[in-house]
Each structure stands twice: as structure tokens, then as C-alpha cells.
Amino acid sequence: MLGKILISNRGEIAVRIIRACRELGIPAVAVYSDCDRNSSHVYMADEAVHIGLSAPLKSYLDMDRVIKVAMEVGADAIHPGYGFLAENPLFAKRCEDAGLVFIGPSPKALALVGDKLKSRQTMVQAQIPIIPGMREEGDPEKIIEESEKLGFPVLIKASAGGGGKGMRVARNRAELKDAIEAGMREAQTAFGNPSVYIEKYLTRPRHIEFQILADQHGNAVHLFERECSIQRRHQKIVEESPSVALDPELREKMGATAIKAIRASNYTNAGTVEFLVDEDRKDSFYFLEVNARVQVEHPVTELVTGIDIVKQQILIASGEKLPFTQPDISQRGHAIECRVYAEDPERSFLPSPGRIAFLKEPFGPGVRHDCGIYSGWEVPVHYDPILSKVITWGEDRETARIRMINALSEYVLLGIKTTIEFSRALLSHKNFIAGDTHTDFIEKNMSGWCSSSGNSDSVKVALIAAAIAASRDKKPAASHSVRRREAPSPWLTLGEWELFGGR
Amino acid sequence: MEFDFAIDGKSHKIKLDVKEGPFEAEVDGKRETVSATLIDSHTISLFLGNRIVTAYIAFDGDTIQVFIAGEKFHIERAQKPSFMERLREEAGPVGDKKVISTPMPGQIVKIQVKEGQIVNPNQNLFIVESMKMENQIRSTVRARIDRIHFKDGDPVDANVAIVELSLVGEEKNVQER
């Protein structure tokens, strides 16, 4: 078993990994940048080390610094979480060379699945269906030429990508040049690699992915599917498991294909095989990519299978065998996750960094809240806008859905704009209730969404509450404390000057 | 105490006589008997009629954010000019001037126009990166670029003027009419 783990990440995922380490009795070391000095993961870890400036390239993406710190604190492994260095084969190799265990796939497997084009080629060889598109990298001119051949619309994707970064849709030739440029810039910022390629853009598919666990002894299982069709800016916002679109036959077929994809890549540890399921041909699905990391949406799988994916990642990296085989794993009930982003859904999901003035987390039966935030914390501009995740579980989809709506109704997060109210409205939408969830769901059903101003009664209550708060805001705090005291205190007659000795 | 508030641009007048025990509140001329308990600096429990409502409150500049049973209200203090009004004031008294500002703090990735250039509605003006995402800012009008205050790579705060425009042609005539 590993002796000490350094977590080269931040936010809610760093907190999640620290919790898994605690359950396994392994000390966890946090790293932090300038602006994360007061972040939750820093407080929760057994040790915390400053690694640099707020800009990711000067801290969380600084491989030399992260590895040096791991050696200095005596860690024997690094958990990269998601994003930053999580899918960087060079970093995994550097860890290996330094004698550190990288909690993830081998550098070779990471290089294969991380390069989306090589990955596509491997899948073709393994006879796994892929979406038509480029099979090799090309310069912008080559991409334009390939787009003409493929036909519009096309999707520009980062070769080293994931998480929607660098992804752009070009619906015609006129949009293509800007989309390629923007995709390349964003890919460079997010992954340090500007390479992009194109795929045929399916206009109304479902995004369904299979969670995989594979140990170093040749055993691999899938933990069934997650449906992640509901996305904005090509980034997921609501996920659920199981998917309403799969019947047992298709589920088995896709699960077996996911295992085949993992075996073709010699992949170990936790990973996810992503597919698109075509709306028009319900039994046909296409391989998209392998996400070689723990994913944001892993809790929905944990809730329906009862398997702790982060703990399994650590155990696999320690060299242990998977403690179960495929027949041991079953789906029970239904789980839904809503990601809470610091974004303004009324203004095209523009980022909304700033100070969290007040936070009250949701609780209740079947409610899980994964977060790395607290009241008074400043949400920085340097990182992803994800703040937290609310995950609910129920015996059936409807129970999980109602629990989610109730949880979001209790979730108070003031000071910045968030997606909480938007998600509540989304889960109440008749098409979501009907399970009619496709990648164009938000565009089709929620565009122009505005937060409700409530009925006249709730507006009245809000105005009275605001007036009471404003009336207190105008009074100096001292006057309240004097009024509330039963007996006058002589100290209160003295000003600050006297109390501090006239300094 | 009297307050002029606005929600979604609609004005409301509130009169309050805060004291121990039940007190009278008047919202847009309608009286209501209320009693309130301060739970903490962000939480007020209100007793209205036969129900208790918990309101969570935070101040955000000129806005008071109030959360009640899953709904968030952004209440503006109406006596202060709104953000858009302040921008209009900054842009000067002439109606054909506009200021395009950053919607959030970040970094200017690319300025895509030049001073003196005429831009059309939906034309790209600049890209600002924040929270690892690029955000394309476009013109909503046909206009001439008068001034550009920043260059590629500059860090910027929220609500800072990046580009100043003057409406031209039909747009100007429409605005003047």
C-alpha cells in the first residue's frame, strides 16, 4: 500500500481525493498556488506546500516543481485528479523516472489514449466504430480541406483535449477559420499543445460513457454507463446513471465494447470510454475518446454501484487486484449530478468569479455534496469555474430528480452568479422529465432562460427582508451590541484610542 | 425607514419601522405585520401572518441578494444609478456613443478591431479569457471604433471599458428617432 500521496490538484477533486486517502489511512499532501492559500483542500490535507503563482503554468502545471515537492515531503505517489497534469504522459513518465507512482495509467497508455488521433486509429484497428473525421494531425489548411471533404457542420477538437476545451463547431466554411484559431489557442492554454483535428458533428446525439476499472493483473470491469448529454459550451452540466436510452442488450454491447477499447490500449487504473449514440439509429454508437482520469461525474457511478472509484484508483496504483469481477457489479437505483459553476446562465454562461458572501450546503436523504468552497472564499479567475457538485440518489429516476430539485432549493450560495437556479429549472423541464436528453438540450429547451422573480408574495417577502438587512447595514454594529447588553460596560464608553493605549 | 428598491427594473417602495416584537412593514402601499429574528449576519427569520420564512441575505455592491426557498432575488437600491446608466454617463452626453466593457475579470486574448474601423452587428470585437475559457465579445450595433484602451495580453478587471464606439448610419438615426 502507498505510504503518502501528494495531490497535484485543487478544488473539489483535491478534497475528494483527501477523503479517500483518509479512509485508507494514507497521509495526503496538498499543493497550492498564491490565490489558493485559503482554499479548502489546503486546510484539509495533512500537509500543504506552496508551489507558485496563481497562473496554472506557474504552479499546478509546473511539473518540475510538483515532482520536487513530492520528493521533499517524502510522498511515494502523486494523484493528479482531473485537468492540469492528469492526462499528461510526460508528467506520468517524469513521476516514474523519479521513483514516484503516478495514480493513473502508464505513460505509454496515457500517450495513446491522450492523443485523440492515435486513439482513433487504435479503435479502428480494434474494429470499434468511430465518428468520421481526420485520422492524422494537420495544419489549418489541411483541416479546411478535410472539412470540405467531410461536409459541414464539423467539430474542431483538441488533439490533447478533454473537458470541452478547444472544442468549436463550424457550421460552414466562413466559421471555420475563426473556430480553428480559437480552438488552437484554447488548446494551447489548457493543455500546452495547440494541435486540433476535426470530426463530423452529429447534431442530436446522446453522450453516453462507460466507467472502467482495470488493474495491473489483466482484470478489467465496467461500472456501467453515465448519460452526460446535457452540456453547455460542450461541457457537461448534468449527468445521470443509468441512461434512459439504453436497454439491457445495448448496455451489454456498449459495456463489452468499452472493455475492448481499454484492452486495445493496454490501459490500467480508472478511465472512461465515451460514446455518442445516434438519435436516428438508436442501436448504433460511436467511440469518441478515452478519458484517462477520474472524472467530475464519477460520483453518480459510485452511488449506483456502491464502488468508491477514487479508493480503487489508489488500490490499483498500489498493485492490488480488483476485489470484484463483472458479475459482482450491479446497478441499483438512479443517481443524478448537477455541477455548480461560477457562471451566469442568463448571460451565455459567462464566468462569474468573486467572493462567496454566504454558503449553506444542501443535505438530506440521498444527497451528496462534493465541494471545495466555503463562505467568504474568493473564487479565482485562473481556474475552471466549477465550484461543487450536488449528487442525489433514489430508488428510481423520479425520486432522484425530486431529491435534486429539493437539494438545489436548499442550496444557498450568495455573492456570485451560479448555475444552481438554472439546474433546478432544467430538472423541472418536461423534456428532462421525459428523458428526452440530447446534446442540444440546453440550446433547444433552455436558451433565453431567466431566473424567475417569483410570485408577488415571495417578491414582497424578499423586499421586506432586504429592507431589514439594509436598515441594519446603515447602523454601526456597536450600537446594537450596546442595546443588547443587560448592564452597561465601562469599556464601551472608551473608544479605540484608549483601549489600545493611545497608539 | 424608507427604501426605494428595484427588482428586474421594477421599482418598489418599502417603509419599515423596525422595533422589538411585531412591527409594520409597507410594501408598495400595502401594510403587513411582520416580526423578524436575526439568526446570523446573513440569515433573517421572518414571521408573516401564520408562516415563518427564512431569508438569506448578502450585499454585493449596489445589489442586495436575497435567497428564499430556492429563489434568488437581486434587489437594486433604486436611488443609485444602475450599471448600464453609469456606463452611459461615462460614455458622455451624446446618445450615439457606446462603451463595451469586460463582463468579468480576465485577460485580453486578442483585440480584433482597429481604431477608426467600422463594425457591424455581431462582428467580433475582442476575446477575453477568464476561468480557462475564451469569451467572444461582439458588437450589437453598426458603429465606428473610437478608442481601444487595452492591447493583447493585458489583464483586466470586471466592468472596465475596453472599446469606445460611435454609432453610424442607420443605427445612429434609429437611436436619434
From TrEMBL, chain A:
Family matches, as Pfam families: Biotin_carb_C, Biotin_carb_N, CPSase_L_D2
Name of the protein this chain belongs to: Acetyl-CoA carboxylase biotin carboxylase subunit
Matches recorded under Gene3D superfamilies: ATP-grasp fold, B domain
Q: Which GO terms describe its molecular function?
A: ATP binding; ligase activity; metal ion binding
Sequence ranges assigned to domain ATP-grasp in this UniProt record:
120-318
- Which species is this record about? candidate division TA06 bacterium
InterPro entries documented for this protein: ATP-grasp, BC-like_N, Biotin_carboxylase_complex, Biotin_carboxylation_dom, Biotin_COase_C, CPAse_ATP-bd, PreATP-grasp_dom_sf, Rudment_hybrid_motif
Please provide the record's keywords in A-Z order. ATP-binding, Biotin, Ligase, Nucleotide-binding
Q: Which PROSITE patterns match?
A: ATP_GRASP (PS50975), BC (PS50979), CPSASE_1 (PS00866), CPSASE_2 (PS00867)
Instruction: Tell me the ranges covered by the Biotin carboxylation domain, including all copies.
Output: 1-447
UniProtKB/TrEMBL annotation, chain B:
Q: Which residue numbers delimit the Lipoyl-binding domain? A: 91-166
Key word Signal present in the record? no
Report the domain of life of the source organism: Bacteria
SUPFAM superfamilies per UniProt: Single hybrid motif
Give UniProt keywords alphabetically: Biotin
Report the InterPro entries cross-referenced here. Answer: Biotin_Carboxyl_Carrier/Decarb, Biotin_lipoyl, Single_hybrid_motif
Keyword Lipid metabolism in annotation: no
Q: Kindly give the Pfam families that the UniProt entry links to this protein.
A: Biotin_lipoyl (PF00364)
Protein's name according to its UniProt entry: Biotin/lipoyl-binding protein
Organism, by scientific name, is: candidate division TA06 bacterium
